[in-house]
Write a structure and sequence with these properties.
The protein is an alpha/beta fold. The protein has ten helices and 14 strands. The protein is globular, with a radius of gyration of 19 Å.
């Protein structure tokens, strides 16, 4: 029996509040002007959005808030109701709490019930992992419509009283790299004219014996006084590894699909930062493809980023167009990607 095509019916996204530029960050944390220049040149990200109010410390949006908004937009765009959703999957590295799972809080708000739900805890590959789970479930023939989400809410952990200048660089870099946001898409086995078909989802753990490129600790009441660094990023290791990993991912995906580089019309590269994305895209070397990037303006929103890229790419795609998206997770080194085609 032939497997059904899985179509992307819609994409919705959500960002919290107004964009925060580098000058605002430098001023808020009493950092010297050279720090702002460092962000501009070394990181290459101009603005990002935070769920936390930097002036008052008030958490304005939860992950559930952002996920609900993005998912509601996607459902409305697809012309579906909550009762039409047969399975729901969320990929995130920053859930609102350990239990209940944020995916279930979002489902409750949307009125979704009596369906299987999944929450995958992962870094930048989590959105692709969620896509993979939903894709396979739809291919099983037991479900028609899947709601897939990727979202992050990291700013809630920012300590506004901290002396930012005293933090290790490996921690400072996280404060300027990342932003908050959410994305959602509706996948369906039921075709619609002009929709993109999900041709392939690629995931591969390649971290055997390698030190993590990023660590994020959980702290509870029993160890809140720990002197462990809560967040650490080995930016140098990431800078050295991610471009080559992205190129390897692209090559492996093209081999599996029997596509050539000249077949790619739109390229969605990894979105660590503006500067890193330039290096990655140069290494990928797909000159005939249009690059779809947004990290310079919204920051690294982790598992939400592929949805922001797709939101920009899908309206441009016409019959015969092919798109490849790539995500690389540095926490324990995961290659991830997906391929779309409009038939």
């Amino acid at each position: 029996m032939d497997e059904p095509d899985i179509h992307i019916l819609s994409v919705g996204t959500a960002l919290p509040g107004a964009p925060v530029d580098n000058a605002t960050l430098a001023d808020r944390f009493n950092m010297p002007s050279v720090w702002e220049l460092w962000i501009d040149s070394f990181i290459g990200t101009r603005t990002r959005h935070f769920a936390l109010d930097l002036e008052t410390g008030t958490i304005r949006y939860s992950l559930a808030d952002l996920g609900e908004t993005a998912a509601a937009k996607a459902l409305q765009e697809a012309g579906l109701r909550a009762s039409d959703v047969d399975v729901m999957v969320l990929g995130t590295a920053s859930p609102d709490m350990l239990m209940p799972a944020t995916v279930n809080l979002i489902a409750d708000r949307l009125g979704i019930n009596d369906v299987p739900t999944y929450q995958l805890q992962s870094g930048c590959s989590g959105a692709v992992q969620a896509l993979d789970v939903a894709h396979k479930m739809l291919l099983s023939g037991h479900y028609r419509n899947a709601l897939v989400l990727g979202a992050e809410n990291c700013a809630k952990h920012i300590d506004l009283s901290m002396d930012a200048a005293s933090l290790p660089t490996s921690e400072q870099v996280n404060g300027v790299l990342f932003g908050d946001g959410a994305g959602a898409m509706v996948l369906s086995t039921e075709p619609r004219p002009g929709t993109a078909v999900l041709r392939h989802v690629f995931l591969r753990l390649v971290g055997l014996g390698r030190e993590p490129g990023q660590t994020v600790e959980w702290f509870g009441r029993g160890d809140r006084g720990s002197d462990r660094q809560p967040i650490s990023e080995d930016y140098k290791a990431i800078e050295e590894s991610v471009p080559s990993m992205a190129a390897e991912t692209l090559e492996e995906m093209l081999d599996m699909l029997d596509w050539k580089e000249t077949d790619i019309d739109y390229l969605l590269p990894p979105q660590l930062s503006g500067t890193m994305t330039e290096k990655i895209t140069e290494r990928l070397d797909v000159p005939g493809a249009q690059e779809i990037s947004c990290v310079v303006d919204i920051g690294n929103t982790g598992n939400a980023l592929p949805f922001f890229q797709l939101e920009r790419a899908l309206p441009r795609m016409t019959t015969g167009d092919r798109t490849v998206g790539i995500a690389i997770e540095s926490s324990k080194w995961i290659k991830a990607g997906f391929a779309l085609e409009v038939c």
